[in-house]
Amino acid sequence: MMEDVMEKRMLGRTGMNVTVLGFGAAEIGYQGVDEATVGRLLSEALDAGLNVVDTAECYANSEEMIGKTASHRRDDFFLFTKCGHTGSSFGMSDWDPKMLGLSIDRSLQRLKTDRVDLLQLHSCSEEMLKQGDVIEVVKRAQEAGKTRFIGYSGDSHAAKYAIQCKAFDTLQTSVSVADQEALDLTLEPALEHEMGVIAKRPVANATWKEKDGPANEYHRAYWERLRKLDYDFLKKPLAEAIGVALRFTLTCPAVCTAIVGTTKPGRWKENAAMVGAMSSQEFNLLRTRWEEVAEKDWVGQT
Questions:
Q1: Does this model's pTM top 0.90?
Q2: At 13, which CATH number?
Q3: 3-state secondary structure at position 38
Q4: Does residue 299 sit within a domain?
Q5: Among 61, 141, 172, 235, which one is least packed by beta carbons within 10 Å?
Q6: What is the C-alpha separation between 246 and 260, in angstroms, rounded?
Q7: What is the pairing mode between strands 170-174 and 196-200?
Q8: Are 200 and 173 within 8 A, CB to CB?
């Protein structure tokens, strides 16, 4: 059972003791996974001991699927969601404060709960953060008891500002063998501010498995970077290579949990078997290769 071996880490000052693997729910929404399969995926993950489920209002019907299939087990896991990017469904701009307030309430309805454990602003710009209105929206949601904690999900200098402004309890950011800007820019400051760090895309979507590159243009930047990085471990069998990539991310300073998505039942036990310690020598080799090859525009992928 995963619960016997799955390491837990304290998510910064939130005090939430989270498993190092979390369930990323983007795929179940974007890939149109049916309700029965979603129910099986979540049940297997929770039964195995995983205690983080991360979604967002813009992940198609992801929130609704979680509400339908896992709300009866609400006390078994920490529920994270994000707000932003769905203004069009309300006839408003993405970061209109009124829209954000409406979408937060809609998320709770979809998730069939009166509160989430973490509500995150979803990759809004540094400029928008500095205006302050969007931060006030999530703060008011917290004061109203709609969320226990608030966070920022994003990358690069916007993420750096989110740390510096001291408004947030957590940072969700891209960290992987193909996306290491955070190691130089935000992870150490987040640790200093006692913010819990959630790693998104922790295995770079395993894009190296696609010989001619992924059909999804959103993932292609990682595929192109990995071709240039040409890590030795990428030549290993896929499961073994994914294990190396995952362990790298979990070895990065400040990372508390890595959000991994899947649409395939049974995958959680396979993922759990990949979790473990990476030697400092192996970690440093991957970091050194990045520092030798990475180009200036290889910033965090939002």
A1: yes
A2: 3.20.20.100
A3: helix
A4: no
A5: 235
A6: 9
A7: parallel
A8: yes
